[in-house]
Write a structure and sequence with these properties.
disordered N terminus; 756 residues; homodimer; 20 helices; 5-stranded mixed beta sheet; alpha+beta
Chain lengths: 756, 756
């Protein structure tokens, strides 16, 4: 671990206790959504469209309803109508189709029966009559003149002049600064490249699952795995047209989400089935369903052009980015536009980004959404500039890296960030000069993610014996319980193991937004700190009462109330002494923090990938991987390292192997982990994570989000390393063996700087 | 309903909405403790002592452990040793015996196996070798010279001179005021009577049950039915020697408690079995076990002497009260001493109360513990005085009733109480002059209970759509969720049905004491009001931000923020308008209240029982029952009426039929609802409940507890009515047919004032 600024000397923050939820998880006792079974529960199965694009002519459920064990069948008609102008329209009609289906796997009905087999049989007996429509499956098909239009109401927003007819372009985002033409005219070197990428899935191990139990009083309880149970509540309420107070959502442990569990699929169906059947209903997706019907990251077509002077100073940039959000508009275009040039000082730039709809599953967020792909383009063009100019790729980035005060793409000045420190940390690491052998190459790439704040709540309750419970509303995806306990321990001055960090359900804690945007440790941590500081005020007051002194004469020092007044010596009172007397000094000790967090510090990362290409097969083997990242302050360094390593692992998979493969009708051909190849342990070396700590001034402990940035650099780092090994630039994902082999073969054999 | 003081005109408080948990309960979907089943759960069975008093020589578990399906066997050795000087000693050794067993049914070991049958078989195979000791089963036996002493360490506390040897008297309480001898010397009429009563059970429908799931990380979750899950947590922690933070207790719905679920029996056994087996363990008592091994109300021997002048003014009182707490010391003596003379102005009194231990199940709280029995004595002596002096029994009580400022038995001045108003309400009710026929009689009695405050916590969360969640830590025994919602609705100005009242688990809300002492609506209601008032301050602040005005210019009126400043008209902002913008005005809206409540207002009740005695069989039939009670303010009048009616029903059962019957070895002979006769619906008429409202000045809505007082007057009211019908005074409970028939026969036939 490299620390580039002096580390504050905290007692607990920055230590590495075993996570509170660790033993339960490694012993298999932690309860994920599919682990819950209720007495009398039914099994729910979704009826899905076999067509990528079709009008629903009719749905006949009579045969299914008559089958053994069937207790309820629902269709879109069981939900309130939703207008296409409603901001929740896409979510609503994605959960259950109304008049049209937009992708193979789109939910059209659902069945609940006593057993899974009965439900599956009944689902197969639901007769849906479709009027099959021509499908558009790629960005090119979607944009082709005369292309079938998916949504009659889709008038491109942001179009200039305004759109007059519906199209498959949902929106256009533009950012610009300076004079781009003049900038390129002044450039000594201009490189412009085009890229294509296809959808990839988040690949979480745990499929979507839930149990819903709806009573005759119109209230329901949902147990499910999600990144945000308050969002499950509000989204389910929206779909059903219910008040939120009728819905309680209890979070199960989550077996991975990576953005893919920020939205909902099954929950409203389970609630509606349960309401109709009068029984609890459990629904668990198969892996096949997860692939076909839950959100992958968008596919893209990207064009990036950068101009530099002869010293490597960037003078102009132009980006044209197309993201396919699947069947409905996604956030890809906006996020791509926000991130593509954010890492570098480029005085003149122009960015235009489109979101396009196609007849594939609706895309969902995936770890730093859109940014890994814009990084793929920008960071490989930069690599070409470095090569052309003979500048070390890290030096090139050091020349151009943004620092505090530089304007962001959207014009706001940057707060203190650690990009330079991350570049220096990698440059100074011994790995950067490790020798490479034949067919081996080294690639450098940087990555940026802005991180977000949003709403968080926390409650701190002190127990009679001086132990504490810290309740937050943030599902624990990457060790946040441990982080919350460490911050609370630091504030209260008690041992982290005497604190029970809990993820509270929607009735147990104040509103909390989704665990996304790398916000949990930052924003929810702020809420925990706020609650703890209120608690310390209360503890000082109670101690003053017990000592019979003024509260202003009580300091809180290392978990004890210490008398600082002039009325002689008094024994300090530790937490347990105060809680033991709480009934006599005012009652239970409880405090809450609720806030809308601002000032999420942007995260930067710099990766160096060393790999070897087998020139006979095109297989790429990662030899060594070094990743630095600015964590602001690492509350629990092990989980920061874990986030960095996890981001690298997913990014390498995205770079080398992962892809959705569709047949000509839009049917996914590889919906299993056998055919959709994610990296396994044997595919990767131990990843060297370097934590850089440049504290975020907006957070009481200097935290900035760490969950997403790590997935941004791997694709270009791998691509640059493949070039370094083979001399071939590959600009289409994945860089699978066959594609690498094709590139080598087309170039007449491997001829990288380290080629044989 | 009679209202004797002008009723405050609240919008929601005092209305009668359907309780939020009602439909779930009447449709059978509410989940009580035994309704929970976990995958992989084991079944736990307790091995119980067949002897009333014995030394445990050895416990051999080997055969049991070798039986099919058995996963764990535990004994007292699996728990930390506890010293007899520890204040939790009685509870600890009652849950699982250590070296001695003190009653038939005392837990000595427990077994967990895959099925209930396997567990029962294994429990039978645990070989316990006992050295049987002579048992003491009655108060007389316990006090007899040379009686076997149960506890070698029991030195009577409060003895004067101090005890020099251990005995079966655990403690003596004395209260006195004035000059008792002089008082009796001045009296024109002195009546002194002796009474005996036997243990009766609370008779809750739901047996004790729990599921515990203990992980390898040493944390456990307990689902159980109790009157206080924080108490289950702390008691279980005490027994196991654990930090409270290792235990989470999730409250199930409770199927009756009446004081009997203020303590624990199964939970530590289930946790220990689960820890040993590595699996969840479910334990459910049979009715037989509930009777044999959980706390009945104590049996008593009472002697009460009252002196009056010729006008019926009481001048002196003397009481000697003995309570048998079962195998361990109970609170009966103290509570009896506190309540015996509390209702009346008696210038000279002397009270002495003893707690005695005997070899029967450890007694537990039962609705106004001890008070129904002291009332039995005092209120029947008063009836004799009224008869002797020819004064109407209500007029006699009106002459002597305590009012505001009168000193209590313990010397504190009474706050404003509604005893006089309750007497007047009954006197003025048409039932009081309804004609009576042959063999019919009317009895009057009053009752008092002091009620308590203790610690309560509440959290109010406002949801995005303006609905609210109100979380408290008080199990809902008698409709408290509805009461909490009504108070919150009144404070916030939103509809009670837009509020979700929730009983939060030990990790979801601040520390809250047991639902006992009629404290929930009083104390937890105060916490709810405190939280809501904080929320209104917050809402006014948010509204001021939205309007761009000073918060001091915002009033909260009927659920809306109303601008009162001079800067023109502004549209008021309802809750939903403020919650919808919460993210822009500071984040989630959450508020907590936590307090130690003081000023629980004492509750008074006056009952009139009309009944008919069958002179051939001694069977008593209740004809008409009229019960007035001071509720302070009835938050939800239906549930106040329910509490009054429930108290009467239980009191009538106690008066007429209920009793523990032991054989000569101390084995209970009637441990089932067939042989232990509680009143059923056909035994009782509709009870006329009269709510009197004399607001409690210490509560924001004037609430005083209503749950317990209603069980205090029935026993003497029935006894006085039997006298009125037959001319026979019965001073031993129960007044069962055979005892009534014996009394009539001994007196030479029925000769009451209404006798044939």
């Amino acid at each position: 671990m490299t620390v580039t600024e002096p580390k504050p000397r905290y007692k607990y923050v920055g230590t590495r206790p075993v996570r509170h939820d660790g033993l339960e998880k490694v012993t298999g006792r932690a309860r994920f959504a599919a682990d819950l079974n209720m007495s009398g529960q039914l099994h729910g199965i979704v009826v899905r469209s076999p067509h990528a694009h079709a009008r629903i002519v009719s749905i006949d459920t009579a045969a299914a309803e008559a089958m053994p064990g069937v207790k309820a069948v629902i269709t879109g008609d069981d939900f309130p109508a939703v207008d296409s102008s409603d901001r929740n329209y896409d979510m609503c009609v994605n959960v259950v189709a109304r008049d049209k289906v937009f992708y193979e796997g789109h939910a059209v009905a659902a069945v609940a029966a006593s057993t899974g087999d009965q439900a599956r049989a009944a689902a197969a007996a639901v007769v849906v009559t479709y009027d099959v429509l021509p499908a558009v499956l790629t960005i090119d098909e979607a944009l082709a003149p005369g292309a079938p239009v998916l949504h009659d109401h889709m008038m491109t927003s942001g179009a200039n002049p305004p759109a007059e007819e519906p199209s498959n372009i949902s929106d256009i985002t533009r950012f610009a600064d300076g004079d781009v033409d003049a900038g390129f005219a002044d450039a000594d070197l201009i490189i412009e490249r085009e890229y294509t990428t296809v959808p990839v899935h988040q690949g979480y191990i745990e499929p979507h699952a839930c149990v819903a139990d709806t009573g005759q009083d119109g209230h329901t309880t949902i147990w499910c795995s999600s990144q945000g149970h308050f969002n499950v509540r509000s989204s389910t309420a929206t779909l059903l047209g219910w008040e939120t107070t009728r819905i309680r959502v209890i979070p199960a442990e989550i077996g991975g989400g990576f953005g893919g569990k920020t939205t909902i699929y099954l929950e409203p169906l389970a609630v509606a089935l349960s309401a109709k059947a009068g029984r609890p209903v459990k629904m668990v997706m198969t892996r096949d369903e997860v692939f076909r019907a839950t959100g992958p990251a968008p596919g893209t077509k990207l064009r990036v052009k950068l101009g530099s002077d002869r010293d490597g100073n960037l003078v102009a940039g132009d980006a044209y980015l197309i993201y396919s959000g699947g069947a409905y508009a996604g956030p890809g275009g906006l996020l791509g536009a926000m991130t593509v040039f954010e890492s570098y000082k480029i005085p003149n730039f122009n960015v235009e980004a489109l979101n396009v709809v196609v007849n594939t599953a609706r895309s969902a967020a995936y770890r730093a959404p859109a940014a890994p792909l814009t990084a793929f383009a920008v960071e490989t063009v930069l690599d070409e500039i470095a090569t052309e100019l003979g500048i070390d790729p890290i030096d090139l980035r050091l020349k151009n890296a943004v620092t505090e005060g530089d304007p962001s793409t959207m014009g706001f000045p940057l707060a203190r960030v650690g990009f330079i420190e991350c570049l220096e940390a990698v440059r100074d690491h011994p790995n950067y000069n490790a020798p490479l052998g034949p067919n081996q190459g080294r690639g450098v790439a940087a990555g940026y993610w802005f991180n977000i704040g949003e709403s968080s709540s926390a409650t701190v309750n002190l127990n009679e014996d001086g132990t504490a419970t810290v309740v937050t509303g943030s599902p624990d995806i990457g060790g946040s319980r441990a982080s919350m306990a460490l911050m609370a321990a630091e504030e209260l001055g008690i041992d982290p193991y005497d604190i029970r960090p809990v993820v509270g359900d929607t009735e147990a804690v104040g509103f909390t937004d989704v665990t996304e945007g790398s916000r949990a440790t930052f924003a929810t941590g702020m809420a925990v700190v706020e609650a703890c500081r209120k608690m310390v005020v209360e503890l000082r007051g109670r101690a003053a009462k017990m000592m019979g002194v003024e509260v202003d004469d009580i300091d809180w020092v290392d978990g004890q109330a210490v008398y600082t007044g002039s009325d002689g010596e008094k024994d300090p009172l530790p937490v347990a002494a105060i809680t033991a007397k709480a009934k006599r000094t005012g009652g239970p000790l409880t405090a809450t923090g609720s806030l809308e967090a601002h000032g999420a510090g942007p995260g930067f990362a710099v990766h160096v990938c060393d790999l070897e290409v087998d020139p006979e097969t095109g297989v790429v083997r990662i030899l060594r991987y070094t990743a630095s990242q600015d964590a602001g302050t690492a509350i629990h360094p092990s989980y920061v390292e874990g986030q960095i390593q996890g981001g690298v692992a997913q990014g390498v998979g995205w770079a080398l192997n992962e892809e959705y493969i569709y047949d000509s009708d839009g049917v996914m051909e590889n919906p299993s982990f056998l055919d959709y190849r994610v990296p396994v342990a044997s595919d990767l070396p131990m990843i060297d994570a370097i934590i850089v700590e440049v504290p975020n001034p907006a957070h009481p402990y200097g935290v900035r989000g760490v969950g997403e940035t790590g997935i941004v650099p791997p694709i270009p780092a791998v691509a640059n390393a493949i070039y370094n090994a083979t001399g071939c630039r590959i600009r289409d994902l994945p860089m699978s063996p066959i594609r690498v082999l094709d590139a080598i073969t087309s170039a007449g054999g491997s001829n990288g700087s380290n080629g044989a």
